[in-house]
Amino acid sequence: MEKPLTEHIKTDGTWLTLTEYEETGGYQGLRKALSMDPLAITKLVGDSGLKGRGGAGFPTGKKWSMIPMGKDAHYPKYFVVNADEMEPGSFKDRLLLETNPHQIIEGAIIGAFAIEANFSFIFLRWAYHKAAKAITQALQEAYEVGYLGKNILGSGFDLEMSLHISVGRYMCGEETALLNALEGKRAIPRAKPPYPVVSGLFGKPTIVNNVETICNVPHILAKGADWFMKLSKSEGEGGTKLYGASGRVKNPGLWELPLGTTLREILEVHAGGMQDGYSFKGVLPGGGSTDFLTDEHLDTPMDFESVQKVGSRMGTGTIIVLDDKTCPIGMLRSLEHFFAHESCGWCTPCREGLPWTAKLLDAIDAGRGKMKDLETLEFHTKYMAPGNTFCALAPGAMEPLQSALKYFRYDFEKHIHEQKCPWKS
Amino acid sequence: MKVKITIDDKIYEVDQETNLLEACLSLEMDLPYFCWHPELGSVAACRQCAIIKYKDDDDEKGKLVMACLEPVKEGMRISLQAPQAHDFRAHNIEALMINHPHDCPVCDEGGECHLQDMTVMTGHNYRRYRFNKRTHTNQYLGPFINHEMNRCIQCYRCTRFYNDYAGGKDFDVFASHDSVYFGRHEPGILENEFSGNLVEVCPTGVFTDKTFKKHFTRKWDLSNGPSICHNCSLGCNIIAGERYGSLRRIRSRYNGDVNGYFICDRGRFGYEYVNSENRICIPLKIENGESSPMPREQAVREISEITSGAKKLIGIGSPKASLESNFLLRQWVGSENFYAGIPANEGKLIRQVIKILKKGTVRTPSLSEVKGYDAVFILGEDVTNTAPMLALYLRQAAKNQPGEVAKDLKIPDWNDAATRVVVQNATGSVYIATFHATKLDEIATQSYYAHPDNIARLAYEVMAEIEGNFKDETKVEAMDNANQPLSSSIAKAMLAAKKPLIVAGTSLYSEAIVQSAAAVANALKEKGKDPGLVYVVPEVNSIGLSMLSEQFLEDAFDKTDSADATIILENDLYQRKDKSSIDAFLKYQKNIISLHYLENTTTHQANYVLPVGTFAEADGTVVSNEGRAQRFYKAHQPDNDIRSSWEWIQEIMMDKWGSASFDEIVSSMVREFPELERVQDAAPSAEFREETQKIPRETHRYSGRTAEDADKNVSEPKPPEDRNSALSYTMEGFTGVPPSAITPFYWTPGWNSVQAINKYQIEVGGELLGGNPGIRLFEPKETTDLDFSDHIPLQFSPKQDEYCGLPLYHIYGSDELSAQSPAVKERVPEAYIALNDDDALKNDIREDDMIEVSVNGEKKRFAVKLHKGISPGILGLPKGLTETAGTEFPFTATIKLISHE
Known about the structure:
heterodimer; A: 425 residues; alpha/beta; Rossmann fold; Ubiquitin-like (UB roll); de novo design (two linked rop proteins); 3 domains; 17 helices; globular; B: 901 residues; six-stranded mixed beta sheet; 26 helices; 35 strands; 25% helix
C-alpha cells in the first residue's frame, strides 16, 4: 500500500530538512512542472481526480482551470495555502505541517506556476507553533537554493512565498474569510460570485487550497495522473487520504489509506475498535460539522460521494467516535458552543441562531429542557440550512444537531422527562 | 432596459439593471430589508429579503435566495408569498429581535422605526426565545449623536455608511458572533462631518439625534416645512419639524438631483439658533440705547412714515435672505439704492461665477451628478469645510475609476459586497491644489499646496498641457511651466477620464482661481471631453442675491450722507467687513431699520428692529451654487410677530404690495429679471390643490390638536391660513404623495420610518414622483465668447517679514448662524493662526505660542498652530469665528512673538 504523503516522515519528532526531502525525491515534481505548460499541469491535476481535502471536495484541477490566464488576466495573481486547521476533531494538516513542510511548499510552487501567480501565502492556524517553525525554516531553505524567489531553477518564473500566522478564528477556514483576514480585515465571508478565482486576495485572481490537497500535487507531477487515480478505491476520486479517529477507540490516531477505505476498516482495523467497557454509538465522520452516522453506515466507503449518499459528509476525514458512556447532548452542547462562539456575526441566522441553539442545549443538559425545545431545535436546523445563511459555517454546525435529533431523539426526550442528564449521577 | 419577470404568478416589467429587492420595491411591493440601502447597495447580511426563486416553469419547490443579491433576469419566476419565504422572513425577525430591548415607548425611534415596520410586515408576533438578552454599554459620541447599542440588530449599515461611504476613521464594528459592537474604540466625539446620517441610516434606535432628544417629540406630532438648508451654498433639501413654536429637528429631504439621501452635520444640527434666547420675537424700537418692544401696527406705522416721506433710502440685502425678500427691499428703496450686503471683492467674484454659469459651455452638474464623474481637479476649495456634501459625493466619484474593473467582471453597481472586494480602497484620479492640507487629501492622487495665484498658474499650465500649447503658443507666454511634471500628470489624468470634473470656488477671494478653473474645463471641452465645472460660493443665496444687484457694501458706504433711512435685511454687517468701516457707516445713518432673527452688533445699532423668520418661519426661494432655484416653506406660523422679511416689507408698503400674494411677488420679480423666469416653476403655486385639497404640514396622526392649548382656552382656535402656498397648517387635507417640492414628510401605510421614501420615488433610489424639485436657471451654451486666460497672475513669492493672510474654513464655526446652535458650538474651534513650519522656525515660534498679528493696521493676538501643508509666506486665519468675524481676506500682515507657551 503506497503512502506518498507520509511514507518518509520521521518518527523522532523532527521534520524533514530540505536535504532529507530531496533525498526522498523531493522537488522532482517541481522540476518536471517547470518544464511543462501551466495549462498542462492543471489538466494533469484534473485528470488525477484530486478533490479538495479541506472538506468540500471540490475538484482541484477544475478550480485551477477557472483562473483567468494570459495577458488579459488581472495581475498579480495569488496562490494561498489554507493551513488554518480548526475543524473540531481534525488534526491531519497538523501532521503534514509539522513533519514535511517542503512537501507543502513544493506543492504550492507548482500550483502557483500552474496559475501564473507570483505571490503565495501559507495561512497558518495560530496555535500550530511547531508548524510555524517548520515552515519558517523550510521557506528559508527553499529561498537559499532557489526554489523560491526570482527565476526559479532558471525557468524565468518568480515566486515570493510567505507564512502568515492567523490570530485564530474558525471562520478563517472559509476561504473568502481567510482572504479578508489576510488583507487585514475582519474575517467575514465574501459574497460569491465573484469567486476568489476571479476576484480573491486584494481583488485579484486567487487559488486557496488546503494543506493536504496541495501535498498531493508534487506526487501527481512526479508519478502521473493514472498512478494517483489508482491509489484510490473509489471511482472518480484519486489518491490516498489521511483518516483520523478520536474518541474512546483503542488506538486513536491518523493513517494514510486509500481513498474510499470503509468506516468499519478505519475504526476496527486501524483504530483497534472500541475500548473495553465502551460500546459504539455513532460517529461524526469528517469533523465537528458533519452529520452523525451510526452502525448501519459502517460499511460506507469514506469518499466524498459515498458519505454524502448516506446523509453526511466526508469533510476532513477525521472521525469523532461517540460511545455509550458519553452524553450525546453534552457533546452537541460543546460543539454548538464552539460554533456559536466562532460565528463571525455577519448574517442574522448564524449570529442569533447558533447562540440560541447552544442555550437550548445548555438548558436540556442542565435538566431545564422542555419538549417544545426540541421543536425549536428542529426549527433551527432548517432556519440555518444551506443557502439561508451567508456561508457554510452555520449549516455545518447544524449537521451534527439535525442528525442527533434523528438518531438520538430518545436521549433528548429522556433528558427532558427526567429533568436531568441521565449520564450524570 | 425593461424585462418581464413573473412574481407570484403575475407578470411584471422591471428594470434589467437592478436586483430583485429593488425591482419588488419599485413595484410598490412590501418586501422587508435591513442591510440594503439604495445608496449603499447590497451585501446580503441581514437575510431579511428572502424570496423563492424557481429554476423554470416546472420547478415547484424553488430555492430560497436573498432578493438583494439576485440580479433580474428576463423570464425569471419568483415568489414573495410562498410559505417557505414568508416563514423564513418572520423567523429571521424573531432571531434578530432576541436581544432587542423592546423599549419602543422610551425609544426616540419609536413610531418611525424601520425595525417596527419590518416586524409588523413579516407577521412575526410570538417570541420563543426564553433566555437572557445580551447587553452592551453605550458610548458618549459627542454633542450630535446618542448611542443605545442594545437596540442594535447588526445590519452593518452604520459602518458601511460611516466608514465605507463617508470615509470615517473613528468608528467601526468590533468583536464577533452575537456580541458584535458598533461604535468607537473608546467613547468620544464622532469626528466625521456626516455622522448625523447614522440617525436615518440606522433602521432602529441605536443612533438617534441628541439635539432632538433635548426637546423630543414624536414624528406624528411635528408640523413640517419642506425646506432648504441655509448653512452653505449647496441647497440641500431638508425637512424642518416644529412643535409648540420651537424647531425640533432637521431631517434630510430626499432630492435625487441634489443631496440624495444625506445631509451634513452642520445642516442637521446647526438649526438650534432658531430656538435661541436671543431670538427677536417682537418689533423693537431703540432710543438712546434703550430698547423697547412695540406693537406690530405701531412699528409698521412709524417705519412707513419715516420711509414714505424719505427722499433717499438705502437698502442692504443679504445672501441669507430669499430672492423675494431681497427683491421687495429693492422695490422699496429703488434699484439704484439697493446694495447686495456683501463686500465687493466677494460680490464681484460671485458675479464672475454667474457669468460663467450663464455664458460658459461646460455643464455645472447638480450635486448628486458629481458622483458620476471619474476624475477630479480641485482648485483652492477646502470642500469638506466650505461645501461638505460636495466632499461626500467627490469621495464617491473617486471610486469610479477603480470601479471599472468591477464592471469588466460584470459585477453590477448595486452589488456592494462584490464591488468592495474588487475595488478595495483604491481611488481614481483626484488632484487637489489648496493653500493648506485638507481632509480630502486622503483620497488625492496628489496634493499641491500653494498661494492662490500659484494654484491658478498650475491650472493654466494644466490648460496649456491639455491644449498641447506649451511648445509653440503665445497664449501662455506668461507661463514657465514650473509645475512639471504635476501639470502634465493632471492634464493626462483629465484627458484619460471619461468625465473629468473641475471644482473651484470663491472661498479664497481669488479671481484667478475662478477664471483658471473655467479655463481648464473649457480646454477639456474643446478636446471633446464631457467635463463638469462646479463652483462653490459662500452662502445659501449668494447666487440669487448677486443676480439682483451689482452694487455691494462699499458702494453703499460711499454714499452715506444723503439717506433718510437705511434698511438692513437679515444681515449682521459686522460679519462682512472690519468693525471700523461698519462703525463709520452706521454712525452717519439717521434711521436704521434692521430685519433680523437674532440680536447682534448690527441690530444693537438700529433704531427699529423687526423680527423676521429664519428658514423655519419664512417662505422664499434661494438659488444654489449650481444655479438651482429652490423653494423653502415655513414649518409653522409663529404665534408672535415673526414673519418672512418680504411679509414685513409688504405690510409696510401696504399701498403698493399689500394685496400681492407670494406668487404675484415672484411674477413681478420675474418681469424685472427675465433671467429668473423659471423661478416660477420651482414649486407648485399657492392655488395648487391635490384632489381639491391642500397639503397638510401636520401628519394625519397629529395628536392632541384640540387639547394643545386647552390650558389657555377650551375652544379650538382656527388654524392659521397659508395664503402663500399649497400647504396648510393643519392635519387635514390630502394624504397621498404630494408634489415633490411640497412634500412635508414621508409616510405611507406600513412604512412609518424615513424608508417610506421608497414609495415617493418612481424607481427606488431614483427620481421622485413628478421629478426632483428645483429648477436649474442656467444650462451650458454651445459656444462662448468668454476668455478665461487673459489675466494669468504673476508667481507669488513669500516676502521677508510680510505674510499673506488667507481664510481657513471650519464646518463648525465659519458659518455665522449654525455656529450659534449649542451642539455645533461645542465643536467650534478656538481662534488660532496657522503658520508654515519654516516660517515659524524663522521667527522662533512654536506650536501654541501667542503671537500678535497686525491685520491691515489692527493688532490681534492668536495662539499658533503649525498647520500641515500650509504654504510658506501664508497665514491661515479661521473665517467667521467670534474673534475673527469681519476680517477681510486676503490681508497683508506682519507677525510678532508675544510669549512662548
